[in-house]
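haha ok so turns out i had the wrong file open the whole time. this is the CORRECT one, sorry everyone. sequence first:
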Amino acid sequence: MRVVFVVPRNNFRDEEFFIPRTIIAKKEIECVVASKNIAALKGMRGNIVESTITLSQVDNGFDAIIFVGGSGAEQYFSDSEALGLAKKYFEMNRVVAAICIAPSILANAGILKGKKATCFASEKENLTAHGALYSRSPIVVDGKIITASGPVVAKEFGEEIVKALKK
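then structure:
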């Protein structure tokens, strides 16, 4: 199995990437990091991760796509490649996950209409404006869509992704 994390160039939330990646990798699932460009990506807490592929190189060969939050995730809110990947993976019935403000990427891609979802509070209005059924729960699973509210539930977010991949 393989998953791809979509990480912003700057200001991703460190815990929302590193904790789920550790949990997923421990299950011997390959984790690949994608970004707009191949680069060193810097977290809000100063940690660095290297992207190994660009968004345009994300093919159909992944079992899940995971959008990492943090203020930098806003770079993907209107990015046609990121939105297209969210929609494509949803249409292929793969696991599509997003945490913190990143569920707005899923909403903007049009895949949360009629779906239960959560997010960081600042994005609630955007989710509901795009037809999502907003929940205050810290983690929401609706079919193969997994959303989480922020870094405090990064561990549970990673665990839910593993559960969904095992189904």
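The chain has a mean pLDDT of 98.
again sry for the mixup
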